[in-house]
Amino acid sequence: MKRLVCWMVAASFSATAYSQSRGPSPAVLYEGERLITGDGSAPIERGAFVVQNGHITAIGSQGAVTAPAGATRVNLSGKTVMPAMINVHVHIGYEGYSTWGAQNYTPQNVLDHLQREAFYGTAATQSVGTSPVDASLQFQRDQEAGKFPPASRFFFMPGYAPPNGGPDQVLRVATNALHVINEVSTAEEARSSVQMMAGKGIKNVKIWVDDRGGTYPKMTPEVYNAIIDEAHKHGMMVHAHATTLPDQKAVVRAGVDVVVHMVQNAKLDDEYLDLLRQKKPYWATVITLGDPTAVCEHDPFFEQAMPAKVIAKIRATTERRPLAPSCGPPSPNAARREETLAYNFPRMISAGARIVLGTDTGIEPGHTFGSGEHVEMARWVQLGLTPMQAIVAATQRPAELMGLKDMGTLAVGKRADFIVLDANPLENILNTRKISNVYLDGARFDREAMLAKWKKADATQ
Ligand SMILES: [Zn+2]
Question: Which residues contact 5 (CB under 8 A, 6 or more apart)?
Answer without folding.
Answer: none
